[in-house]
Amino acid sequence: MALTDRQKKTLKKHSVHHTKKHMAVMNSLMTRKKNPMTFTMAHRQALKIAGK
Questions:
Q1: pLDDT digits (tens, 9 = 90+) for 8-43
Q2: Residue 25: which domain range?
Q3: Which residues are CB-neighbours of 29 under 8 A, at least 6 positions away?
Q4: Residue 47's pLDDT band (boundaries 50, 70, 90)?
Q5: Residue 32 to residue 35: CA distance in whole angstroms
Q6: How far apart are CA 3 and CA 50, in angstroms?
Q7: 1 falls in which pLDDT band (50, 70, 90)?
Q8: pTM of the full predicted structure?
Q9: Is residue 15 a part of any domain in this protein?
Q10: How high is the pLDDT of residue 22?
Q11: How far apart are CA 30 and CA 13, in angstroms?
Q12: Looking at the domain assignment, is residue 43 inside a domain?
């Protein structure tokens, strides 16, 4: 599933405060085919997996 323009814009602003690993985890969670996560859900999961 591709990201919407709004999601891309929000992720770009979000990336200033977080590591590349955190952003990669968020991106993969939001774009997976089966059961993609919302921004907030992906962020919380990425904090658990990759930290800040």
A1: 999 999 999 999 999 999 999 999 999 999 999 999
A2: 5-10+20-50
A3: 36, 37, 41, 42, 45, 46
A4: very high
A5: 7
A6: 21
A7: confident
A8: 0.87
A9: no
A10: 96
A11: 16
A12: yes
Structure tokens at 44: 């919380």
Q: Is-contact 49 23, C-beta < 8 A?
A: no
CA torsion, points 39, 12, 31, 44, in degrees to nearest 10? -30
Q: Which two tokens stand for residue 37?
A: 């996560």
Distances (CA, A) of 37 to 27, 41, 42, 47: 10, 6, 6, 14
35 within a domain of the structure (yes/no): yes
The angle subtended at Cα 26 by Cα 39 and Cα 52, nearest 5°, is 105
In a domain, 33, yes or no: yes
Structural domains counted in the chain: 1
